[in-house]
Amino acid sequence: MGAKFLFCLPLRLGVSIFTMGQFLVAGAIAGLAWFITFGPRNTLEWELLVATLRTGLIIFASIFSFISFVGLLGFFGAMFKKTALVSIYVVVLWFSYFIQLAGGIWFIVQFFKLRNLGALDRCDDEIRKNGITFGDLTVDLNDVCDALEKLNKAFHPAVIIGVFVAINIILLYVIYIGHAFIGRLKDKKYEKVYGGGTAIPSYAPVKQAENIPLTVQGSYPYTDASNSFGHAKAPSTGYAPVGASRV
């Protein structure tokens, strides 16, 4: 039995749902990241987060923008049953998965490295020792530590890691469904070309059966009674020898 989406639904439906969901969700995440990076910021916590992780946020937003575009490409491929589009979607999805995995790990490490500074007793000394800068911001380190402590309480580690793991599991399942759907499209194309319709005979049709009796229905030489085995010898019709007397 072939692969099914959620064990019972058509693969095409699964690919359509996942690709459209990927387009919408990844697009929303990318839009939020772009807004955080370049939008207005009213609190010091967000100022510090953006100033310190600006590069990471730009990479993060770019990756999810790309994933959103790939999802739209796969959706059109599923809707119109285009093997080429779905194949491109799956290949690009593999690359985007590994890019997202590496970028997500880097972002999480940097985020928690900054976040955990607020929990230290000597937060300002650690900031100086690690040479952490905040872009163009000119801030008091005491205010920085207070803001980081609030950031530490606002984001629980389980939430960030849980979202990251869930996204990766969903992407792997989408890749599996995409591979299965490509195989299904190729099988249908093969059946349409080689297995469908009525087989074309390799010879021209005839009006009568070919297995007619092989024996001749009429007469042919030496079938008369005088030439049949067991009958009386027929009188000779040969000429007299050359040396015989002629009358």
Give a short account of the largest sheet: none
What fraction, in percent, of the residue positions are helical? 55-70%
* Nearest-integer average pLDDT: 72
Euclidean distance between termini CA atoms:
103 Å
Low-confidence stretches: none
Task: Summarize the structure in short.
The protein is mostly helical. It contains seven helices and no strands. The protein has helices at 11-38, 44-52, 54-79, 83-115, 123-130, 141-154, 157-195.
Describe the structure.
- Keywords: Membrane, Transmembrane, Transmembrane helix.
- The chain crosses the membrane at residues 12-36, 56-76, 88-109, 158-182.
- The chain has seven helices and no strands.
- Helix 1 (11-38) packs antiparallel against helix 7 (157-195).
- It is mostly helical and 247 residues long.
- Helices cover 64% and strands 0% of the residues.
- The protein has one domain (11-194).
- It has helices spanning 11-38, 44-52, 54-79, 83-115, 123-130, 141-154, 157-195.
List the helices and strands and how they pair.
Layout: H1 11-38, H2 44-52, H3 54-79, H4 83-115, H5 123-130, H6 141-154, H7 157-195
Helix pairs in contact: 1-3, 1-7, 3-4, 4-7
Keywords: Membrane, Transmembrane, Transmembrane helix
Transmembrane segments: 12-36, 56-76, 88-109, 158-182
Which descriptors apply to this entry?
single chain; 247 residues; mainly alpha; 64% helix; rod-shaped
